Amino acid sequence: MTNAPADSTVRQTVWSAPGMPALLLLTATGFSGFAALLPTAPLWAVRGGADAAGAGSVNAVLMLCTVLAQTLVPTAIRRLGWRTTLVCGVILLGAPALPHLLTTDLGAVLALSAVRGLGFGVLTVCGATAVAELVEPARRGKAVGAYGLAIAGPQFILVSTAPWVAENLGFGCVFAVGALPLLGVLPALRLARRLGGHPAGAVEDPPHRDAVTGGRAGHLPLLPPMLLLLGVTTAGGALITFAPQMSSDPTATLAGLLLLTGTAAVSRWRFGSLADRYGTRPFRWPLVLVTVLGLALTAWAVTSPEATGMVPLLAGTALVGVSYGGLQNLTLVDAFAAVDHRSSGVASAVWNIGFDAGTGLGALLVGFLATGTSFSTALLAAAALSLATLPLAFARRRAAGPAI
Q1: What is the Cα Rg of the chain in Å?
Q2: pTM
Q3: Most CB atoms within 10 A, among 5, 32, 207, 342?
């Protein structure tokens, strides 16, 4: 009898672990709405007369507000509880979608993006924190992979197809999909009930009191994975935001986005098992180089605004997708390993700040550089930024728990 719980845990997959089904459903609905509008809201602004810089500012504002919200989520959970925080998050993310139909004015689009960013910040930190709370460290890589697939799956379908749907079936269809996070209220309530007994990691305000004697040094190990993630999400954010505008071939654009999001989905899922088995270090530096190569190929493909190179575009977006998904998984595993269990909420917030700051930086950097030069030059600048993170990929992580 005493062995039954342990045996049951061994047989149980991370997909069916208590609380995981609700988390995965909440994540899928939330990221469906996010993914649908990520490439489409900038197009909506362009329809209203915005240039490339204005279009890029749409997702830049989205991510700026996301990052601001992420810094406050651990405090919100402690003071308001999981239920209120999660429900507010999905409402803020989904409710602003349909009001886009009322105006194409850039100021209004930016305001709606700001509100969506607040909701997205809540969803991302709560989701990543819940993974650490629901699944033990020995299977955390697989759990992060499952969580990542719930994120990347909607992106695979919607990031690539939403611009086509908007242009051919109408923007209203896409904005309706953008409201899907509202369906996440019920799974949010179920997840909150499960996490009600797991207050430690999520509710602690940074800095953790164990780090008081060393000032902020207790959380410095979170900086390398965050910066490493920022480098690759800058690349992903740039391609997702501007693929419809930098390519002269709509078929190439659709295929490129499908490859980017499809390879990212598979990569983020599969690298979970590899991280559990081999650790993260052997895979980090090759993926950084894959990012740089993919961006260089994409820059070559869009050198001529009138004639997109189909083969280098597809190869480049596929390569960026592999690193985009793989490094998301590996850096999240590293972030959780760098702190003790009580600081998992802080690790989640810092990791998500790196993710979303990179996505916003990619949109802003490439948008402004493309306005003054070209998309090709802007992508090469993003490649240089990614290459600058390579030394971080070789660093050994100081783990708070079992080394990975």
Answers
A1: 20
A2: 0.73
A3: 32
